[in-house]
Amino acid sequence: MNLSLVSNYLTSSDPSLQKETEIFVTQAFNYFETLRSDVNGWKICVETLLNCGQQLSESAVFFCLHVIENYLKTNYELDDESNRNVFRQFVFSWFSVNEVNSIYILNKFAYIVNTLFLFDFPSQRWNTFFQDFLAVCQNQRNCDLFLRILLQINADVADREIPRTPKKTYEHSENERNNLIKDKMRETCLLDVAHFWFNVIVSSKYNETTYRDSSPPLVCLCLNVIGAYVAWIDISLVTNESVMSDLFKLFEKIEYRCAVCECFTNILHKGMDPQSKAQLIEQFMAVDSVKAKFISVSNNSDCEDEEEREFTVKLSRLFNTAGLELVECYKKVKPKQSIEESPNSLLSFIHNAIECKFNILCQLLSHKNHIASFQVHSFAREFIQWLKNTKPDKVCVEDAKTQEFVVIISKSKFPLDYDFNVEEESEFEECRKSSKILFENLMCLNSMTCFNFLCYNVIEEIFRDWRSGKYTFADIEVALYFLYLLGENMNVIPDQKRCENLLQVMITSSISSYPHQCVHLMYFDIILRYEKFISHSLNFLVPQILISFLDERGFKNSSLKVRSRVSQVFNKFVKSHIKSKGSDKLHGFAEDIMKRLQDFLKLDITEEPSEGMTNGNVKPVNIFDDVHYYIRDEDQLLIYETVSVLIVCNHNFDIPKKGFLMRNLLFEPIWEKFESVFAKVSSLVATNDLSNCDNKINEERSVQIRNYCKSLSHYISLIARTSKGFSNVQTVKSINAQIIYLESFNRFVKCLTLNVNEDSLFAMQSAIRQLLHRLIVCLDETDILPLLPVAIENIFLTRLSFNAKNIQELVPLINQIVSKFKHSWMFQRDLMPFLKQMFLPLISSIFNLTADLNLGNDERQALHKSYYSFLCVLASNNILEVFTSLGKFNVLEKVLMSVVQGAVEFPDVTTQKSCFLVLKKIIDLQDSAPQLKSENGSSFKENQFLVEFMYKTVIPACFYAQLRQQDENQMTNECINCLRSIQQIRGNEEFCSYIQLQLLPQHFPNFSRSADLLHALVNNDNKLLKNTFKTFIQQFKKHELI
């Protein structure tokens, strides 16, 4: 073997490689391919590893093992026994003689040994596998390597986190093979393996010194192995007195305590009888070092040492598991015993054990390490439920709830070092979310106690005295936070009148002026949460609330994040409050609100922040200048919608005033700005087409054009969003606004004629399409239907050819039109000819796109979904003339075959059902429309293709589609409905004859109970057919008779 060459095998990941080195790397890979394809290549590597020993570099060893692994996976099972013996002998020999220290290499070898084990141990070619390796575990190196092998074996045969496949591995499936291995190990070797573990963690029978003293990493590795295996071995091999006593002693030493925690946690997950498990937990909790450690963890909760933090997390996880297992033991024993009848019973013992954990639970819950605190939340939730069900002494319950409630409030406060600029969810936020669930559980346990505690000790006191300076930001924010949570749990609040008082105190206390964005955000969220209270009982506070929205706390806040959230909250507040009976004050303040929001209606306010901006605000040159408050495009859309609602729903405005405000305040400024920007774009596009400027100037113009097109799209979206201010009561026609909406559309559609790039054109097309969606919703058929053919043609067909994007925008639009206007005579007059005309080009484009190999799988699936939804809407609304208008049956055949394919193979069940609906409608069409003629003049009903299509394609699809479903109930109704339709059209005798003589023999030849299926088909009882059909499917799945 060329050792100098293979030494370069692992250098390919080095980014500093020079060209010369890259040549060697390429040669090494080529050499690997040569050895891998050579029948004796693996033997060369075996000889190299056994003979060269310490002369080999780590790279060369890995190279040899890689070649050996390849042989093992591809050729070992097919090779003769003599070569397999050579391979086994190599594995065993190298296990004993190797002196490699690289953990990566050791894990690689352990993986190879495990793969060999999976081949030879279940097939009984190496029955003495464990005995052979245990016999040579006489030193630290061999023990370490054998433990790694054991971990690899467990990962393959027992690790539940690794998904198993039903694929066959020679004689057995993976699960069958794994069960066979575990059963054989239980019978033959696990006792010896357990003795080996015991010798490693206690003392070595081969050395005078123990591994505990000489090699702590080895002992920790052994504990990891025990924790992994305990899930499926006999628990008595581990939970006996000798092993447990030594395990608990290891907890005393710093280097072992993390491994002991993980190992004991896994032991507790093991199923045991309640008494044994409860006694084992209490035995562990009674160990002096364990008790001392729980005390020290609680007293040193601000420890910054990394190792100490890791240990605290694992100890918390262990305590959480112990608590959960005790509660489970209690549930198992309680039906059999009673504490009152047997105070010294097992139930009483477990009850006391759970109760004694409460103090430690509170200490860990309040730990400053949020990860450690989070670990015990599961036990905390179960403990609350346990308190609710056990009904112990009432005083103890109240005390426990109060203690836990104090901890929950404390853990919900923002820490001093919290970074509000980081957008990713922090450990604190995860812990706070979980604490919220604990709060809700406590509220369900006793809402009165929790409510009174919050009111007296947290919310009222802080709200009334927040200006005194004795409360921090965290105190003020948490008071608001829990008032918000009370609003979320209003169904269990005992005194809702008091909640109203708290809300009133919050608003009148001006706590919303506290200078922190989190306080502002929480304040407005509370206003929205309690909007119903404000509408019914606190209507007199509406002026103060509106002012808070419109001043420096809300829209004029220095934080862009707050302004954005206020835009959302104010929109929801106005839309909800204006419909209530107590909305008179909002109606009265509408003009003042619109005046204060006028700056945010300006169309340049959404321009991106420049260098002169801080937090999205332009710094004024002097104190007399106004501050320019930047907002996002999405926020301005909400503001336009809000203003539209204020105008349209205002009882104080008459119809002419509403129309005047809509036109002058909202529409005309947009029209004017649109025309101005459109002219600029047109000029730039014309200049770009004629000029021969350098690339830099052209690039600058392209950026300008792109930004202008983005602005045009935004203006169109603003008009579309104003339509959301209307409702079924307050319609567009009721204030004669249909004229300005139609004028807007006619103005905007011309932007699609601009000669800009496809992305910019698509953005404007999407905005106009959204406007058209809104017009279809809001306008009457007399106003919108005559416009639609030309509008669709201008949007989708003038400039852009059909592609995946615009098809997925066009299809929902057509679906909406068909669903809303299908019964209109104007639809038949104006839309039906247009649909017939565009149907063939549209589906042809879809077929061409889905056949394109460059289209991604996700895009292809989305396109198929749009296609099937389009056909389903046409079929379900009986717009079937478009199918018969295809003229050529070969095109219809292609459409129908694609529908069958979707019914059987599409991965989404809802889409499959849609496809079956289309098939049923096409089948029914043959019976209901015999006058329709095909290309050759035959009737639609008697066309030979359609008859053959039903029998040869649709009927088998009904069976195969159901066979592909995991749940037999998912597609049963759709399949049966299709079968019944065919049966009704073709007649009982012809249909059943086909099932008996052609379908079953051709597709399901091994099915012997055809008489039951035929009887159910002949019978008119659909329930009988459904049950028989399901039985048919279950039998085929069970016996694999397909």
Automatic annotation (TrEMBL):
Broad class of the protein's primary localization: cytoplasm
Record bears the keyword Iron-sulfur: no
Keywords linked to the UniProt accession: Cytoplasm, Nucleus, RNA-binding, Transport, tRNA-binding
GO biological process, one term: tRNA re-export from nucleus
GO CC entries: cytoplasm; nuclear matrix; nuclear pore
Annotated Pfam families: Exportin-T, Xpo1
GO molecular function terms attached to this record: small GTPase binding; tRNA binding
Exportin-T C-terminal domain: residues covered: 372-1036
Compartment(s) where it occurs, according to its Swiss-Prot or TrEMBL record: Cytoplasm; Nucleus
PANTHER family registered for this protein in UniProt: EXPORTIN-T (PTHR15952:SF11), EXPORTIN-T/LOS1 (PTHR15952)
Function: tRNA nucleus export receptor which facilitates tRNA translocation across the nuclear pore complex.
Assigned protein family: Belongs to the exportin family.
Protein name as it appears in the record: Exportin-T
Classification lineage: Eukaryota, Metazoa, Ecdysozoa, Arthropoda, Chelicerata
